Amino acid sequence: MPARAFFFVTVDEVGPQGFLVRKTYTAVNAPFLQGMNLGPLEMIRDVAPERYGLWARNPESLASISSHVLGTDKVTSYVSTSGNFPEGSLRFEGKSIYIDIAAAKRAGARIVTPEEIGQDIDAYLKDKSSKVKREGEYLKKKALGTDNEFLVKPNPVVPPEGIFTRQGLAIAMGFEKWARVVQVWCIVLTGYDLAIATEESSRIRSIRPLEKAVLTNIAGWEGSMAGRWAGAVLGARIGAATGSIVGIETGPGTLITGAIGGIIGGAIGFFAESWVMEKAGM
Predict the structure, then answer these.
(1) Mind listing the pLDDT tens digit for each residue in 1-23?
(2) In terms of DSSP H, where are the helices of 5-64?
């Protein structure tokens, strides 16, 4: 395909397996963070995973699950999160970030469940003194009860596209419906035709080549339904506006994204919303 085939919104469903919540520091000068003796890069990553991805404080650490959860080692290859969506653990304050579980797994991360945490702590405490056992059981109860703690072990990082702030998650979830409709039409239209038409539309700064390719493909694929084109035109006008909004948020260019918004809106106007939603699996 030509190199300038513009794609404009994600076609991945956001959070199909749910989200984990992590409370992060809001600044690198937080006293507790400073006390960990991390380097500048590690501290920035800890504060802003939505920009730099989710990293463990020490990806090379061999510390166990129980030593991380019980706090005997605070710089490990694990990252603490909570399964309490959307508020996270009520014992901790700070900025909430949301980790897409499916995106983390695609990036090779290991997700450690509360059940696994409990089993590891039990094995660790088995031969310890009564005092250590009491303290360990108390922390275990907090971790598995109030916190509903899950651990993430990045490999070596969960990329930023799988990490959301509260505002970013709201935006992503808001555009998910349109993204899934786009996915359907990327299947219907051949990648080659769409790329060539997009290239020409970009060159002459007009949506007409892309519009022509789309209408030709739709007409040839579904048959002649000329009586519905009035609805398609109205839908395209609405869709183009929506596409332009997506373009502002994601940055690939209003011209092409607006045209694709028109494709989506035109499809809904042409085939009716129920047909498009059925094709999108909604």
Answers:
(1) 333 333 333 345 678 899 999 99
(2) 31-34, 40-47, 49-52
